[in-house]
């Protein structure tokens, strides 16, 4: 799919999701939802996107079974369009959030949408991994160690075992992330099967 076609699909998708949002606005609203009408419209649009792209992803894997084994270097026109449609949705939702909610209320969702739209590079993935996995686990280990006398012994044991498993998993995931995103060359990612 060339750039012009991709941009047309992205634009058409963004406009289609905006149209869906507008249609939902016109429909009668239940009494309890009047105060949060925008939020309900946003949720319905998000649900429509999830249902559409979830079924579409299953169809992509059904029609191109080799993608199950290699999602990096294999794709099809059908799967490429799926990504373009989702990008259009994220652009629409980003703008909808930015215009209808304060940044203070929606900054994390806006950041998420920005990262999805721009296909966050590998270094950002590792930084996010370190912040949200390693730092969070470190904080939990620190809390458990400093409050060990205040919690029941079985809770301390369960916490220690659980955090040990999570820490081990995080080390394995970090190694895999480093190996696939940083340590290997990206020369074979351009193949089209």
TrEMBL record:
<feature type="domain" description="TLC">
    <location>
        <begin position="35"/>
        <end position="193"/>
    </location>
</feature>
<keyword id="KW-1133">Transmembrane helix</keyword>
<keyword id="KW-0472">Membrane</keyword>
<dbReference type="GO" id="GO:0097035">
    <property type="term" value="P:regulation of membrane lipid distribution"/>
</dbReference>
<dbReference type="InterPro" id="IPR006634">
    <property type="entry name" value="TLC-dom"/>
</dbReference>
<dbReference type="InterPro" id="IPR050846">
    <property type="entry name" value="TLCD"/>
</dbReference>
<protein>
    <submittedName>
        <fullName>TLC domain-containing protein 2</fullName>
    </submittedName>
</protein>
<dbReference type="GO" id="GO:0007009">
    <property type="term" value="P:plasma membrane organization"/>
</dbReference>
<keyword id="KW-0812">Transmembrane</keyword>
<feature type="transmembrane region" description="Helical">
    <location>
        <begin position="6"/>
        <end position="28"/>
    </location>
</feature>
<dbReference type="GO" id="GO:0055091">
    <property type="term" value="P:phospholipid homeostasis"/>
</dbReference>
<dbReference type="GO" id="GO:0005886">
    <property type="term" value="C:plasma membrane"/>
</dbReference>
<dbReference type="GO" id="GO:0071709">
    <property type="term" value="P:membrane assembly"/>
</dbReference>
<dbReference type="Pfam" id="PF03798">
    <property type="entry name" value="TRAM_LAG1_CLN8"/>
</dbReference>
<feature type="transmembrane region" description="Helical">
    <location>
        <begin position="40"/>
        <end position="59"/>
    </location>
</feature>
<feature type="transmembrane region" description="Helical">
    <location>
        <begin position="154"/>
        <end position="178"/>
    </location>
</feature>
